[in-house]
Write a structure and sequence with these properties.
Helices cover about 30% and strands about 20% of the residues. The protein is an alpha/beta fold and about 425 residues long. A hairpin with a 5-residue loop joins strand 3 and strand 4. The C terminus is likely disordered.
C-alpha cells in the first residue's frame, strides 16, 4: 500500500477570478512542485476547456489521465453552482462532480445543455436545477460518477450554508442521498467540526483546495492509501471506508483562516464568535443589521454532539469515532511560512526564490511541510523559515478567525519575534 495525494477541486482559466495561467501544462508542473499525485482537471463543462482536455489529456491504463511526458495524473472533476427554489426557499448549492472518462463527460454535458444550461458562460456554470436532479444526471452519465457536496458549510453556496442551504443531506439530494458518500470540508471547517454531526457518521470527509491559482493548489487535499493508483481505487476508497483502499488522512487549512469561520460584518469590520452573536441576537453592533452567520455558528446549530478534541478521536463518546475516522493534519502553505518569516508578501520575489531553492534541494512542498527532517531543511532554508515549519507542525500559531468573506490571519511569528534581516541574506 502506498500513499497518494489528491486534490479533487480547483478551477481553470475559464472560471471567473481565476489566474490566466491555470492551464493544464502549468497545473501539471505545479502539481509536481506541490507533491500532488492527482489533480482535478477542473471546469469540464466549459466547451472550450473541454476541447483542450480532449486534445491534450491521454487516458492511462489506471483510468486516470496525463499530459504526454509528465508525471501528474488528472482526474475528471468539475464544480457546478445550482441555484433553485425548493419548498418556497431559494437554495444555492455548489457540487463537485467526478466522472471516469471524457466520453461520460460528453454525455453529462449534453444532458445539461439539453435542459438549457449555458455552459459557455463560466467554467463553474450556474444551473437552475436542483442538487437532486444534477446528481441524477451524473449517475445517468456513469454509474461510476462521484458526487461530492462542495465546501459544505460556506454560508452562501453550500449544502449546510446558513444563507441558502439545507439541514440535512437527505433534504438536499432526495432520492440520490444514498449516492453521496463523501463531503468536502471547505477552508473554514476541519474534520473535527464535521464529526459533531451524527448524520455524517457514514459519510467520508475529503478536502480540496478550490484553487484559483497554482500557488493555492493543495492548500487542502486528501491523502489516500491505495494498493495501486487508479480511478477505481480512489472511488472505492472514497465510497467505502471499510475497503482495503482507504483515506489515510486529510490535509487541512487551519479553519480559522477560512473566510467564513466566524460570524460578522466585513463592511463594519465586526468579527463575532457564535456566543457573541447569540448575545447580540444576531445583530451587528455597529450598523444594526443581521450579521452573516459563519461556519462555526452553523456547526453549533446542526451538531448533536459537543465540541471535541480533534487531536484525540478515541476520547469521543460516539462509537463511530473510536479511532475509526481518518485523522487530519493542519498546514500553512510553505510560501506563506516563508513570507511570514521574511515579513513580506507571499507573492514577492524573495519568497519565490526561497521557495524554489527549498523545493529544488529538499523535495516537494508536502514532503517539506510534513515529513522532511529538520536537519535536511536547515541545509538549504533560512533559519527563520525552518523555525516556522517546525512551529506549524506543532500548531504553535497566532490566529485571528476569518469572517463574512474576509480571510482570517494565521501568523507564525509576531513582529517582535521576527528578526531583522538584510535583503542580501534572504536571497542567498
Amino acid at each position: 500500500m502506498s500513499e497518494y495525494i489528491v486534490d479533487f477541486h480547483l478551477h481553470s482559466k475559464y472560471s471567473r477570478a481565476v489566474s490566466r495561467d491555470m492551464n493544464l501544462e502549468e497545473m501539471s508542473i505545479w502539481g509536481e512542485k506541490k507533491g500532488i499525485d492527482v489533480l482535478a482537471c477542473a471546469d469540464f463543462t466549459h466547451p472550450e476547456w473541454f476541447r483542450e482536455l480532449r486534445t491534450k489529456l491521454v487516458l492511462q491504463p489506471n483510468g486516470l489521465y496525463k499530459l504526454k511526458g509528465t508525471k501528474t495524473h488528472f482526474i475528471l472533476s468539475t464544480e457546478l453552482s445550482a441555484i433553485y427554489t425548493q419548498d418556497g426557499k431559494v437554495h444555492r448549492i455548489h457540487i463537485v462532480i467526478i466522472l471516469p472518462t471524457l466520453e461520460t463527460i460528453e454525455k453529462f454535458n449534453a444532458s445539461l445543455a439539453a435542459e438549457g444550461a449555458n455552459l459557455k458562460a463560466d467554467g463553474r456554470p450556474i444551473l437552475g436545477m436542483s442538487a437532486e436532479h444534477i446528481a441524477g444526471l451524473a449517475k445517468q452519465a456513469s454509474p461510476k460518477a462521484m458526487i461530492i457536496p462542495a465546501h459544505i458549510w460556506t454560508p452562501w453556496f453550500s449544502m449546510f450554508g446558513s444563507k441558502s442551504g439545507f439541514n440535512s443531506l437527505k433534504e438536499c439530494f432526495g432520492k440520490f442521498a444514498k449516492d453521496i458518500h463523501a463531503v468536502e470540508t471547505g477552508l473554514s471547517s476541519d474534520p473535527a467540526m464535521n464529526w459533531r454531526l451524527s448524520q455524517l457518521d457514514d459519510i467520508q470527509i475529503v478536502s480540496s483546495s478550490d484553487a484559483h491559482s497554482m500557488r493555492k493548489m493543495g492548500r487542502e487535499a486528501t491523502v489516500f492509501e491505495l494498493d495501486s493508483l487508479s480511478y477505481d481505487s480512489i472511488r472505492t476508497a472514497t465510497e467505502n471506508p471499510n475497503s482495503k483502499n482507504k483515506i489515510a488522512y486529510t490535509i487541512e487549512f487551519f479553519p480559522e483562516e477560512g473566510k467564513y469561520h466566524f460570524d460578522g460584518h466585513m463592511k463594519c469590520k465586526v468579527r463575532m464568535s457564535p456566543g457573541e452573536t447569540k448575545r447580540a441576537k444576531g445583530i451587528c453592533p455597529k450598523c444594526g443589521r443581521p450579521v452573516t452567520v459563519g461556519v462555526m455558528n452553523r456547526v453549533e446549530n446542526l451538531a448533536d454532539r459537543p465540541e471535541m478534541d480533534p487531536k484525540n478521536p478515541p476520547a469521543m463518546q460516539a462509537k463511530a469515532f473510536e479511532a475509526s475516522r481518518p485523522p487530519f493534519k493542519s498546514i500553512v502553505p510553505l510560501q506563506e511560512i516563508i513570507a511570514d518569516a521574511f515579513g513580506v508578501g507571499d507573492a514577492s520575489k524573495r519568497v519565490q526564490a526561497e521557495y524554489e531553492k527549498i523545493i529544488a534541494h529538499v523535495g516537494n512542498e508536502f514532503f517539506v511541510l510534513l515529513h522532511a527532517p529538520k536537519e535536511k531543511i536547515a541545509e538549504f532554508a533560512d533559519e527563520m523559515v525552518v523555525e516556522g515549519i517546525m512551529r506549524v507542525r506543532e500548531g504553535k500559531l497566532h490566529i485571528l478567525p476569518g469572517f463574512d468573506g474576509e480571510f482570517g490571519m494565521v501568523k507564525v511569528f509576531t513582529d517582535e519575534e521576527r528578526k531583522p534581516r538584510s535583503k542580501q541574506k534572504s536571497l542567498l
